[in-house]
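Hello again, I could really use a second opinion on something today. I've dropped the whole record in just underneath, so have a look.
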Amino acid sequence: MKKQFAVIGLGRFGSAVAETLAANGKEVLAIDSDGSRVKAVADLVTIAIELDATDEKALREAGVQNVDVAVVSIGEDIESSILVVMLLKELEVREIIAKAVNDLHGKILRHIGVDRVVYPERDMAQRVAQSLIRPAFLEQIELSPEYSIVELPAPAFLWDKTIREGNLRAEYGISIIAVKRQFFVEGKKKEKWNINPSPDDLIQKEDVLVVLGANSDIEKLG
């Protein structure tokens, strides 16, 4: 069953996220109170609806409560953004990602339970969409359409092996360029980075790997 997304607010950022998700085969419910914005994406997404997203009844009738992830991309109207997030929480949407216009807005969104707050420029939209499509990737920096640097949890088949034994370069054409290891000191979580690790360094279960390679090869690790 395809993962379902709702994108609420179809400005430059919201429409770019909706279009990128749809282009990658995801089911997208696109919502805005501006009919021209809805019309602009109508042929690109699964469903596009003109409605007031601060109206709980309208959201429920649109089926927002059934999506896996809701992306709230309302522009400068901070009050509406906060109200929509609260309504999504009431509708028990599984995961909520919201755009913030400033630090205070972001703090409020986190306080009311947003799972991820983003402060996007237009060129960030595709990165956010890619992280939704590939949730195993913690972060992705596109170097070109074909190559990326990706941060991801160490796959199980690499646990308790050295980088040499993992043989990612020979098997996948992927290079490990850094390893992030978490540990606790007096009950507080700390992080230690190993930049340019040795081939004899051991990969542990909780490690996060930063890898460089072709997108098609990195996908195999996700």
The first strand starts at residue 4 and ends at 8. Residues 4-133 form a domain with the Rossmann fold fold (CATH 3.40.50.720). The first helix runs from residue 12 to 23. The chain has two domains: 4-133, 139-221.
